[in-house]
Specification:
- By secondary structure, this protein is of the alpha/beta class.
- It has a single domain, classed as Aldolase class I (TIM Barrel, Alpha-Beta Barrel), CATH 3.20.20.70.
- Helices cover about 45% and strands about 10% of the residues.
- It contains twelve helices and eight strands.
- The chain has an eight-stranded parallel barrel with strand order 1-2-3-4-5-6-7-8, surrounded by six helices.
Amino acid sequence: MTPIGRLLTAMITPFDEDDELSYSQARKLARALIESGSDGLVIGGTTGESPSMSDDEKIRLFAEVKEEVGDRAAVVAGATDNNHRKSIELSQEAEKVGADALLLTVPAYNKPTQEGLYQHFKAIAEATPLPGLLYNVPSRTSLNMSDDTTLRLAEIDNIVGVKEASSDPVQITRIVDKAPPGFRVWSGNDDETFSIMCVGGYGVVSVASNIIGSQIKAMMGMVLEGDLERGAAEHRRLLPIFKALFWVTNPIPIKYAVNRAGFDAGKPRLPMVEADADFAAKFDPVMDEYDIDLPVPA
């Protein structure tokens, strides 16, 4: 299996001028993200506008990106949602087309109990041998997966980690401390990567690495080398762009930033809309303070 890696980019999904998914641009973007430091790519997640894609689009996107990156990076497929049976079907299809792992996202809207979460993810894990990366994001789902539930799921062999976006440092630290060997914690928020890694977290599923992946990877390296003073300084330097990328709903800002950097990613799909002029007027000066790592195809 391709190692999942520490720096996972939540890749945006390019659309063309007719609002169709541009697989050719997705391939180019996947290649560019690897060149700028990504160890793996989360495809069809929130940042990838998964709620606006059909099942067929998702499966083809998983396949095309995996074919493009090969063994150079892991492809983590966002194949789960609040429909349990469809989550299993899409996970099995993702396996067939070569995905390396699955993003197991806490369901939104139907708000299951903690036992429901456990049974939902356990059944998906039993339906495919692919490694599963849990994703806890209460700001999107209105439901927090507790540390107790995460630790129960960590005992399942092919559930290998969690993308934690609860912003609860006690909960996250307890998961890091109590999880079995081999179970890893990725930060789900760019502005929390430094602190989570300082308590033993493994890495990050990053939005900002769509444009500044090499710089994020360098900051992570400082933590791993024990140079916390330099790592903290780099975290503080990057913090303004981390925050600016969430001034309005993700992925509106990051898609704007990627396009502004010169990579044609198209508009978001409705109900998401493009960043407006007021956002651009505030965001552009922040973005201009940073070198952009993303190589733009000629």
